[in-house]
């Protein structure tokens, strides 16, 4: 069946686009700063074994102000699993 303008219908377009999507590996998490205890919303991108086999680390991206009076910026870093929360 054709849509109003001769192209695929909305149902056909939605079915095609959702079939092409791969599951995204990124997950929402919270990063807890061990120095000041601030909890920040973050995006967990991947896991790796920490150096010297001290456990696991997650690579995250989160917004933060690096210095007082500055604008917000994105920080990407590897953090210990103990500093990551899922809620």
Q: What structural keywords apply?
A:
single chain; 87 residues; mainly beta; five-stranded antiparallel sheet
What does this structure look like?
This protein is mainly beta and 87 residues long. It has one domain. It is 13% helix and 41% strand. It contains one helix and five strands. The protein has a five-stranded antiparallel beta sheet with strand order 4-3-2-1-5, with no helix packed on it. Strand 3 and strand 4 form a beta hairpin. The longest helix has 11 residues. The protein is elongated and about 60 Å long.
| Topology order in helix (H) and strand (E) letters | HEEEEE
Which stretches of 5+ consecutive residues score pLDDT under 50? none
Number of strands: 5
Quickly give the structural class. mainly beta
Name the overall outline: elongated
Provide a brief overview of the structure.
By secondary structure, this protein is mostly beta strands. Helices cover 13% and strands 41% of the residues. The radius of gyration is 20 Å and the shape is elongated.
Q: Mind sketching the topology for me?
A:
Elements lengths: L9 H11 L6 E6 L6 E11 L6 E9 L8 E8 L3 E2 L2
Antiparallel strand pairs: 1-2, 1-5, 2-3, 3-4
């Amino acid at each position: 069946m054709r849509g109003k303008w001769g192209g695929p219908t909305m149902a056909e377009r939605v079915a095609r686009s959702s079939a092409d999507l791969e599951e995204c590996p990124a997950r929402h998490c919270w990063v807890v700063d061990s120095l000041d205890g601030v909890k920040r919303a973050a995006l967990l991108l991947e896991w790796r074994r920490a150096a010297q086999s001290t456990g696991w680390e997650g690579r995250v991206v989160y917004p933060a102000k690096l210095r007082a009076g500055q604008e917000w910026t994105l920080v990407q870093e590897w953090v210990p699993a103990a500093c990551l929360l899922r809620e």
